[in-house]
Amino acid sequence: MSEELPLEVEEFLTWLRVERGRSTNTLSAYHGDLRRYLSWLRGRGRSLADVDEGDVTDYVGHLRDKGLAPATVKRMVVSVRALHRFRVAEGTGDADPSADVAVPRVPRGVPKALTEDEVDQLIKAVVGDDAPSLRDRAILEVLYGTGLRISELVGLSLADVDLVEAVLRAYGKGGKERVVPIGRCAHDALRAWLGPGGRPVLEPERWARRGDAEALFLNTRGGRMSRQGAWGVVRKYGSRTGLEGRLTPHVLRHSCATHMLDHGADIRSVQELLGHASISTTQLYTLVSTERLWAVYRAAHPRAMVPGQPS
After folding, report:
1. pLDDT value of residue 23
2. Would you say 217 and 160 are in contact if contact means Cβ atoms under 8 Å apart?
3. The CATH number of the domain where 138 resides is what?
4. Are 274 and 187 within one domain?
5. pTM of model > 0.70
6. Active-site hit among 87, 137, 149, 259
């Protein structure tokens, strides 16, 4: 049985939830990160009250030595720094021992988008007009057509979708709401899923949990589809089309953004569509589109090569 977190850490997590509006997934990550940090401190005979800068620096080194991914190390260090800042703000700590400890840098990766042909093959891999197939086709079309995060997709309720106006209401990180247009293919797939042979077939005689009756996507037991369930749908059809190892829900989000930019979309519009807080996140897709443009140009134009530029 795991040890309970100290009261001041529980208060910090409550503050994140109530005051900062952090999502359940984010709170779960903070909880795990801080439990790990406190366990490490106990192993050194230290407590939060007597942590100094050297302890925090050593902890960062410890995480790196464990071979964790740079992004994971950065997230854990951010959790630790946030806790120590909170202690100072609340008067339970005299100084922040993490203030001068640098947050590890994460190498900037370039999103690996699918080609448009691969997206087409993926969605065509859903065959049949039974209820689960109609649901799966709608899930793939909505993920690619709107660029929703997987958590946003499974969080959709019936009232969030307006097929007359062809828009949906998504709730992103921190509970931020945005309106997203529904394209023709996603619209057709949703209309089929919500028709007589789709969602109504999976509706149970009695709803097991509050909120399931309002869920847009249901599992075969008649409950709201979980994040893991939606992941399973993506994985299933990725395997059918030879995309296993490459395809995730986030890759479909990457592909939505990249293909829009490829076809001339304004970067600010893509930022708004995806719910990115910072334009720098969206600019990653500009890099992808530029690289793809150069690849086509080099292959097609007889005078494309620039001296000193790799082929």
Report:
1. 85
2. no
3. 1.10.443.10
4. yes
5. no
6. 149
